Amino acid sequence: MTIGLFIPCYVDQFYPKAAIATLELLEKQGLQVVYPFNQTCCGQPMANSGFAHLTQGCNNLFMQNFKDVDYIVSPSGSCVLHIKDHLHAENAADEPVAHHIRKRIYELTEFLTDILKIENLKARFPYKVGMHQSCHGQRGLKISQMSELVAEPFSKPEKLLRMVEDLELIELSRKDECCGFGGTFCVTEEAISAKMGKDRVKDHLEHGAEFITGADMSCLMHLEGILRRQKSKVQVKHIAEILNSYA
């Protein structure tokens, strides 16, 4: 199968190591991966701010870039959910292309778990790691169970992390609590966002985390900013980097 690698703009600009790790991880599974060089922002920031009607240019470019691949994989649950929920064609004749993309786009951990059905990984990461369950992935893509539901718990990212040799996955007191990033929410509601982020960081620190990981680099960027201001030695690392690690 041919995989189209969708790298969100903030990952491309600020966290390229997460993108490289995603590429290498997919290639290790024997997949042919292509990266459309013309890709830009998917339009999520505009949609989150109430301007989804202005994202058609982003939609058109996304369709042009990814119309010919079997699957689209991205290391960002929020961007994937945006495409699943908001990608539509400008013309009715092109809507089958949009429909194909909406059904074939996956966040990295759900692709590894649900499509490739990975059962083992050759990775080693000898550290205590806290897993942050981002809201878009958990409540939108359903890559982990919500604690308020009376249902069997599951977490696709945690399942993959437990395959990593010498990694100690710590337990958190409030494992699916929002970090407060929320895209443009962290700009419009700065004080609330910062307090929520500090609470999330505190939970990880109290349980001895050496690294905080997750499937959305945007949430990790928010937590990283708080850790730096607190002069903490705890680091953030996208889950792709850990699953691709031989530390």
UniProtKB/TrEMBL annotation:
Entry GO CC: cytosol
InterPro entries found in the cross-reference section: Cys_rich_dom
Any one Pfam family match given in the protein's UniProt record, by short name: CCG
Domain Cysteine-rich intervals: 4-84, 129-223
One annotated GO molecular function: oxidoreductase activity
Protein's name in the database: Fe-S oxidoreductase
Species assigned in the record: Adhaeribacter arboris
Lineage, uppermost ranks: Bacteria, Pseudomonadati, Bacteroidota, Cytophagia, Cytophagales
